[in-house]
Amino acid sequence: MKRPSLHRGWSLRSRLLVSSVTLIAVVCAIVGVVTTVSLQAYLYTRLDSSVDDVVGHVMHAPGGGPAAGRPGGFPGGGRTAFDPRKFVTQGGQTAGTLSVVFGPDGRAFQGAFSRDQATTGQFGSTPLTAAQLSALSGLPRDGDDHTVTVPGLGDYRMKYFVVPGAGTRLAVGLPTLPVSDTVDRVILVIICVTAAGLAAAGMAGAAMIRYALVPLRRVAVIAGRVSELPLSQGEVTLSERVPSADTDPRTEVGQVGSALNRLLGHVESALESRQASETRVRQFVADASHELRTPLASIRGYAELIRRGPEEQGPGTRHALGRIESEAGRMTTLVEDLLLLARLDAGRPLSYDTVDLSPLVIDTVSDARAAGPGHLWRVDLPDDPAQVRADTARLHQVLANLLANARTHTPPGTTVTARVLPGDGVVRLDVEDTGPGIPGDLLPHVFERFARGDASRARANGVAPGGSSGLGLAIAHAVVTAHGGTITADSAPGRTVFRLTLPATAEA
Ligand SMILES: Nc1ncnc2c1ncn2[C@@H]1O[C@H](COP(=O)(O)OP(=O)(O)OP(=O)(O)O)[C@@H](O)[C@H]1O
Ligand SMILES: [Mg+2]
Questions:
Q1: Keyword annotations for this protein (predicted)?
Q2: What three-state secondary structure class fits 328?
Q3: 341: exposed, middle or buried (C-beta count within 10 Å: 0-12, 13-18, 19+)?
Q4: Which of 98, 118, 150, 459 has its CA 20 to 30 A from that of 171?
Q5: C-alpha distances in angstroms, 235 versus 115, 268, 445, 477?
Q6: What is the Cα–Cα distance from 486 to 503, expressed in whole angstroms?
Q7: Which residue CA neighbors atom 29 of ligand 1 most closely?
Q8: Helix, strand, coil percent content, the chain, rounded in steps of 5
Q9: Is 40 helix (H, G, I), strand (E, B) or coil?
Q10: For 241, which DSSP code?
């Protein structure tokens, strides 16, 4: 089963760029998170020790511990002896220090925090409101530091304790704002630096990857050029190679380049041997056809000699001689066709002339009418000459083949029309008949060699004299292609059209 890929359709460049930038982003994120978490933990540890210092200030107030009778001290359990307002403004307390006194019922009943001199213009204390006190009443009493949100003041790091001896229940704390400010600032700096770093890495990475992939693009250009070469037939010179600078086997691109060169070398030798074997076969067919002409002519000659000779022959011998002559004639045509095809395949030059198609059509249709008087023959010709540069004999043969098909593959009574239509730079020649048409499975292969319909095979098997070989349209195709033209077949029951398109001559 094929796995659906998220990156399908992405270029290698985009993939490399996105992967490396993502990797850098992940590393930066991990570094950022670890830095922030450890910095925050460290700052909270320091804040907790500062809270402990504040507790120490309470314990060791000037004059030796919780001093009775002194301002700010507390006289052994007196409910109002410890004045939080005075304590928070005593020397040594940082701005924002908060202190609260708890009653025996466990509720905070009095508290104050010190104001910052910088923002208020004076260093003083502010009593806590009832709402703030009730928020602080919930402070756990386990002697640890806890973060409490005090309405209107923000988060505070608070510690509850009982003054030994005096029994006074107190809580002191410091704001967490400086810690969270520092952490926020560090997070901001990390995000900005990471974003700038990613943008720079993206741009630098894109440039580096583009530079690194230049050789690969050169190799791809060569592969593209080779893919556009017509390799399927004829002689091919495959001179394209990846330059040696891009075939260094120590680099990945070099490995691709040298593999492509080896592949091109193999393809070139395969094409050469294909061409050599095609030439050999063509030469063999041409030679064999050529050699067969003489013995075939002799067979026909001797058969005719015996038939016309003075000796008396029985009806069986006469029939046999007739068959020998007609089959030898058929074989001669076949051999001539094969020879012509072999010569056209070998690219033998044709003898070009300026030919007007109209007289050629009249001649060939006249011949066809003589051969097939049962058909209705029509011509449709333009008033002006329709001139093409062509080998007259070969073109005559093409037309004769098309007209012979329209005669032999249709029943008597069929109308056959030969039409010449001068066009824009081309001349069109249609041979149309109203016969039963070419079978659907044969139509796509009708121009291939030895392609015949079943009825034609039956005739070839001796049912009718002069049976078909299946080479007529193959020859028409080869001749028209050698002239730089095209031939197409369009067929349906009642209408079959063979259309030749030939380049018109300039003087036409
Ligand atoms: N006008 C047509 N109407 C119907 N079928 C046709 C027509 N022209 C060609 N065909 C079919 O196409 C086949 C191939 O034609 P092609 O001329 O190549 O060979 P052939 O006529 O059988 O033999 P050859 O022309 O070599 O004597 C024919 O056998 C016939 O079945
Ligand atoms: Mg034919």
A1: Kinase, Membrane, Phosphoprotein, Transferase, Transmembrane, Transmembrane helix, Two-component regulatory system
A2: helix
A3: buried
A4: 118
A5: 98, 10, 25, 20
A6: 9
A7: 452
A8: 50, 15, 30
A9: helix
A10: -
**Alpha-carbon separation of residue 23 from 10, 16, 202, 314, 390 (angstroms):** 18, 10, 11, 102, 70
In ligand 1, which atom is closest to the CA atom of 435?
A: 3
Q: Is 88 exposed, middle or buried (0-12, 13-18, 19+ CB in 10 A)?
A: buried
Please state, in angstroms and rounded to a whole number, the distance separating the CA atoms of residues 274 and 348: 19
Could you tell me which residues come within 8 angstroms of residue 156 by beta carbon, excluding any fewer than 6 positions away? 98, 147, 148, 149, 150, 173, 174, 175, 176
Rounded Cα gap, residues 480 and 504, in angstroms? 13
pLDDT digits (tens, 9 = 90+) for 432-478: 999 999 999 999 999 999 988 865 554 544 434 446 789 999 999 99
For the CA of 337, the nearest atom of ligand 1: 26
- Determine if residue 32 is left, alpha or beta; phi over 0 gives left, psi from -120 to 50 gives alpha, anything else beta: alpha
Q: 393 Cβ partners below 8 Å, 6+ apart?
A: 351
Angstrom distances, CA of residue 301 to CA of 156, 294, 295, 308, 326:
128, 10, 10, 11, 12
Amino acid at 480: V
> Which residue of 409, 459, 475 sits with most ligand 1 atoms within 8 Å of its CB, as the best mutation to test the pocket?
409
Domains of the chain: 13-184 (3.30.450), 229-348 (1.10.287.130), 350-503 (3.30.565.10)
- Phi, psi (rounded to 5 degrees) for 155: -80, 140
- Number of the ligand closest to the Cα of 477: 1
Whether the CB of 111 sits within 6 Å of ligand 1: no
Question: Rounded CA gap, 154 and 53, in Å?
Answer: 21
The DSSP H or E segment spanning 279 is helix 252-308
For ligand 1, mutation pick of 447, 468, 498 (most atoms within 8 Å of CB)? 468
Rounded-to-integer distance, Cα 173 and Cα 147, Å: 9
Span 202-228, pLDDT tens digits? 999 999 999 988 998 999 999 999 999
